[in-house]
């Protein structure tokens, strides 16, 4: 006999969970007590805010393909962590969030910190459930794990009443995860797919999602290269494809460049693999007509709920990305009159790396050029949200081993937490976080989590003293009427980082960056580099003043 908290931890260990991110709370003391005995097998990474823990769990799921585990207390703990749930959902990343709950004898009375988690997370997560009977822990945890990892992966929220966790039981724990196979495309479906591509004049492959297994994307790449078809990623998934391939033509996301818009708009057949057709990858749903696009879309997805959700496909294929990639590997390449089409897309992608000098003490164009030369091939880059994200998202070539952890939800504060989670998961890899000064301050206290966990990344703070994205929108729509976007007083980030045990430096010129970054790479305690960026350098090719002048002339 043991209590529900111990049974829950036994089930997680059996499922292969190695780390859980969270903030302790009295509502799930029995779980914390059980974790006392699993050190080295299942470790609790104590965070400083539940929002940070949620981000770390979401990033873990995106990086590893296994559900990131988040543990938080009831009420405020759950609502703080909600940002991680929303991020995991929009990223299609597997995640389980366990939330303490009031005792079953108090439910429905608005007891201290009580919430109805099915109502709060019902539209935010794939599933929200409460375990009222201790004997059902294995059943519900197993179902939650399977749901988080199958179809379109995503987050599941599980509420744990306090008295349920302290109830004794002899219910057996799980013995391991359910072995799931992906839906496989039928041979005649693949023949139909090949016929559609062969009849095209301007074919395109568009892909997304984080649940690709090792080698699967290489099969897609081999088909694309053999068929000379251009490939575009959806928002913030360019790391899943080898950007050095001549078939890769860019990312369809925020700040979509004209050449990528043209590829999507002018393609006549689009093979869309594992993507959900979000707002950012469709330029606000303007590149394809809703619901019947001009382009013939072949939509491949592991969830039948995604096929036809927005756009009616010419061919819908219910198949997982890895099963589909294997089927594609057995398909003969297609050739047609589109070599110049692919070449023009690639040339535009390559030209996009050419930048004018930036009007800033630290020129991020030159910084990124240096990073492309010195970072290892298996680097992990992370970022939160803001105009600064254009640098890791648009000016870095991701090779086959490099990764990008960045939120499709556009959540500020994600980058630092994702970098910490990446160092927890992969302590031997170089992890570099790009953060704006506003973005960094959303979760800078998690530097303490990094210190305690021995998971200290390199953080580049692009410090321009403004909320850049919103300022840019202001200048375009309300020129010369600045309101609420200037950070008149930031802390001394160098002193702050040193207080958390990091190596830290302020970098005031472009010429000083290379040596400072060398010291950051050599630091055994991670590093924070505070880069002085001029507000004028708001985008790589347009200054803040030019935005304002253009808007004023427009009237």
Count every beta strand, where a strand is a DSSP E run of 2 or more residues: 20
Question: How are strands sequenced across the largest beta sheet?
Answer: 3-2-4-5-7-6
- C-alpha termini separation: 75 Å
Number of helices: 21
Helix content class: 25-40%
Spans with pLDDT under 50 lasting ≥5 residues? none
Coarse morphology: globular
Mean pLDDT: 97
State the secondary-structure class.
Answer: alpha/beta
- Rounded to an integer, what's the Rg over CA atoms? 24 Å
Biggest pleated sheet: 6 strands, parallel
Detail the topology: elements first, then pairings.
Blueprint: E1 2-3, H1 4-14, E2 19-22, H2 29-35, E3 43-46, H3 50-64, E4 68-72, H4 76-91, E5 95-101, H5 117-121, E6 127-130, H6 137-149, E7 155-161, H7 162-166, E8 168-169, H8 187-198, E9 203-207, H9 216-227, E10 231-234, E11 248-252, H10 258-266, E12 269-273, E13 296-301, E14 315-318, H11 321-329, H12 339-351, H13 364-374, E15 380-383, H14 390-394, E16 403-405, H15 414-425, E17 431-436, H16 437-442, H17 447-453, E18 458-463, H18 468-477, H19 493-499, E19 503-507, H20 513-522, E20 527-532, H21 544-554
Parallel strand pairs: 2-3, 2-4, 4-5, 5-7, 6-7, 9-10, 9-12, 10-11, 12-13, 13-14, 15-16, 15-17, 17-18, 18-20, 19-20
Antiparallel strand pairs: 1-8
Helix pairs in contact: 1-2, 1-6, 3-4, 3-15, 9-11, 18-21
